[in-house]
Amino acid sequence: MEKKLHRFLESNLLNKYLVGDTSVEETQEVERYIKNFPEVATAYEKLQHNLELIAKVGAVDVPNNMLSNILDALDESNETKVIHLVQNSKTPWYSIAASAAAVLFAISTLFLYQKNQLLLDENNIVVDEIFDLRSDIQNNNAKLDKLSREFNKLNNPDARKYVMSGNDRAKDLKTVAYINPVEKTTMIDVISLPQLPKDQHYQIWAELQDRMVNLGILDETERELRPIPYMEDALALSIKIGTDGNEKVTNDNSVAEISLKDK
C-alpha cells in the first residue's frame, strides 16, 4: 500500500485534478485517495495554497481610468470626419491595446508555466519528505520497541546483575552482565574498555567445571546491551585479552573475573 501511495503522489494526478484536467475515473480515484489517506489530503491542501499564491502574484489590476479613456476615444472617433480618418496614418488605439494584451498574455503564460514547474518540484519534495518522515517514525518505533524489550529483561525479578571491574592491567574496564536462569538468557553491557593494540582484543569466557568456553569478543564500539550465549552450569565469568591467531587461555591474560556461585 505504501508503494502504491507513493506512485499516486508522483503521478501528477493531484495537479491535474486541481486545474480540472482529470477524467471522470481519475477524478473519482483522486477524491478517494484524498478521503482515505491523510498524506494525500495534506499534499492537496498544499497544492491549493501554492496555486492561490501564484494566482495572486500573476494577477494584473485594470487601471481605474481605463474605462473613461476608452469612452473618450470613442467620442473622439465619432466627431472625426471620414476623410480625416483616411488620411490619418497613426496606429488605432485598439490595435495597440490588442498587441499589449497579447504580450501581457504571453508573459503571464510563461510566468504561470514556470510557477507550475516550481509547484511540481515542490510537490515531489513534499512527497519525499512525507515518506522520509514515515520511515524515520518506523525506525524510531523499532528502536523504542527494542529498548523496551531490553529494559523488561533487566527489570525481570529473575534476572541477576553482575558488575565486572578490571584489575591492574585494565583499571578502567567495566562491564555489566545480566543473567536470567529462568529464561536462560545472558546480556552483556559494555560500559568502558581500555584501548588495546591493534592485534589484541577482549574476550569474555565462561568457566565450567572442566573447561573454559569462549562467549565472544567485547568491542568498545558496541556500547549497547547485547546477548551472549547462556551457559547453564557456569561457575564464573571472566574477561581476558586475546591475540589474533592465538586462542590460548591462561590466567596471565585475565583482566576481570566474577564468580557466579554466590548468587
Brief descriptors of the model:
elongated, four-stranded antiparallel β-sheet, Immunoglobulin-like, 263 residues
What does this 3D model show about the protein?
The protein is built from seven helices and eight strands; from the N terminus they run αααααααββββββββ. With 263 residues, the protein is an alpha+beta fold. It has two domains: 2-152, no CATH class; 160-259, Sandwich (Immunoglobulin-like), CATH 2.60.40. The strands form two sheets. A four-stranded antiparallel β-sheet has the order 1-2-3-6, with no helix packed on it. The chain is elongated, with a radius of gyration of 39 Å. The protein starts with a helix and ends with a strand. The model is unreliable at 80-91 (pLDDT under 50).
The helix fraction, in percent, is 40-55%
Tally of helical runs: 7
Look at the helices and sheets and give the structural class: alpha+beta
Q: Characterize the main sheet.
A: 4 strands, antiparallel
Our measurement of the CA-to-CA distance between the termini, rounded to an integer number of angstroms, reads 52 Å
Order of helices and strands: HHHHHHHEEEEEEEE
- Strands of the widest sheet, in order across it, are 1-2-3-6
Quick check: average pLDDT? Answer: 76
Count structural domains: 2
Ranges with pLDDT <50 over ≥5 residues?
80-91
Shape: elongated
The proportion of residues in beta strands is 15-25%
**How many beta strands in the DSSP annotation?**
8
Radius of gyration: 39 Å
